[in-house]
Amino acid sequence: MQPVRLYDQPQEFAEMMMRHLRESLNLEVRQDAYEPLLLEIQYDKDNEEDKSRVSLHETFVTYMRTGDLNTAIDYLNGVLRCSTDIRDRQEEMLRLDPQFIYPVLRSKEYVEQAGLGSGPLAEESLPGLCMMFLEIKEGYSKIINQEMLDHHPRLTAERVKRLAYRNLRAEGWSYPNLNLQSPFHSSCWVDVYTDPPFPPECQFLYPEMARGHTADSYLIAFTNRKTTILMRAEEPMDTVDRAIRLVKKSRFVDVVRRSYRVMPHPVSDRIYWCHKGEFRWLEGV
Fold it and tell me: For residues 155 and 231, which has the higher predicted lDDT (pLDDT)?
């Protein structure tokens, strides 16, 4: 059954969101001249630099797949709360608490489409995925960018990366919430890491964290911001051909695509094969 949608075009969707933001904030909200799903909120009409940018890209993609306007409204409410605090507590919002900085994975397209390439600390960690750094505190996830670092002379980009790793490691290994045996190939098991108190996806990328917690070979997908899906097998998966064979026999690709397409805040539907700490994108599966 196809979802019923009120707004099929990016322009229409963005105009609806923009109208609600203007009415709620009583501020100037405008679309980027070249990208309708990128909004700018102007806090001080006399200061062109006093503004924030809001990306609607992932929210629109989720809405188009599901027709669920409630997800868009939830996102809008979060933007309203954040924008109000930026307006009322701007200096405080620029402060960073080193104890709450974590690494996260976001799609390369997200970084590029949101117009974030020049500001935040971001580096490509896997094909198509970038590691970014957030301060996660009091219900907010702040993307750490150069403007914030300018307010913290002793906090360099390299130190942010070290702090993020330290904080993630201090949380300990995040274990899966679900362990499911594949009904299509009984030697394969799917582990689902979902809705954690902190982002756990990067724990797999740090060898010293993953050691002792993962098999020598496994498959993994980072489908959305709150879900990581891993597949392990009781039979050898030590070559690309064997990994692809098990992806197909277990229908792991269907599990990954369903999670990516249905759940909010999608990240990637790419499947990666990890063998002895080295990751490879299984392109074309």
Answer: 231
Over the stretch 111-135, which tens digit does the pLDDT of each residue have? 876 555 446 788 899 999 999 999 9
Say which amino acid occupies 269: D
- Are the CB atoms for 130 and 268 separated by under 8 Å? no
Nearest of 266, 270, 264 to residue 285 by alpha carbon: 270
102-127 burial code (b ≥16 CB/10 A, e <16): bbbbbbbebbebbebeebbbbeebbe
Domain ranges of the chain: 10-88, 98-171, 178-281
Enter the pTM of the model. 0.81
Q: Which of 107, 233, 218 is nearest to 182 (CA)?
A: 233
> What is the CA 90 to chain-centroid distance, rounded?
25
Alpha-carbon dihedral 147, 152, 155, 161, rounded to 10 degrees = -40
CA dihedral 197, 201, 207, 212 (to 10 degrees): 60
Rounded Cα distance between 31 and 41, Å, is 9
H helices, E strands: number in the chain: 10, 13
Q: What SS3 class is residue 133? A: strand
Q: What digits encode the pLDDT tens for the residues 202-232?
A: 999 999 999 999 999 999 999 999 999 999 9
CB proximity list for 112: less than 8 A, separation 6 or greater: none
